Amino acid sequence: MEFLREIAGVLGAADAFRIHYAVVDGRGGYFENVARLAFFSDREIVLKGRKGCVRVEGEGLSLGKYYAGDLVIYGNILHIGREGGGEKL
């Protein structure tokens, strides 16, 4: 986690969005720093972090392990976005 703070500092975003994730194409993804689940369906999941929400869109989405702020989402993740922008996968 210290490495991500360093990167945010270099980019001038010390107060950056704090939900971090990794996606395995067609299989699902791993999300860190999730405060709570705001919405869930098989096509859309909204995760609430301390500083905003992340919307995960895809096909056949389901929840896996959720413990201590870490969440596994299974399914084909097509788009991840947050308020004010997003990243297409």
Structure explained in plain terms:
With 89 residues, this protein is mainly beta. 10% of the residues lie in helices and 61% in strands. It has one helix and seven strands. The chain has one helix at residues 2-10; strands at residues 20-24, 28-32, 36-40, 44-49, 52-67, 70-82, 85-88. Strands 1, 2, 3, 4, 5, 6 and 7 form a seven-stranded antiparallel beta sheet that branches. A hairpin with a 2-residue loop joins strand 5 (52-67) and strand 6 (70-82). The radius of gyration is 13 Å and the shape is globular. The two termini are 23 Å apart. Residues 84-89 have low confidence and may be disordered.
Number of strands: 7
- Given helix and strand content, the structural type is mainly beta
Number of helices: 1
Overall helicity:
10-25%
The average pLDDT score comes to 83
Portion in beta strands:
over 45%
Order of helices and strands: HEEEEEEE
Could you give a short account of the major beta sheet? 7 strands, antiparallel
Instruction: Give the distance, in angstroms, between the N- and C-terminal Cα atoms.
Output: 23 Å
Shape summary? globular
What order do the helices and strands come in, and which of them pair?
Layout: H1 2-10, E1 20-24, E2 28-32, E3 36-40, E4 44-49, E5 52-67, E6 70-82, E7 85-88
Antiparallel strand pairs: 1-2, 2-6, 3-4, 4-5, 5-6, 6-7
Briefly, what is this?
With 89 residues, the chain is mainly beta. Helix content is 10%, strand content 61%.
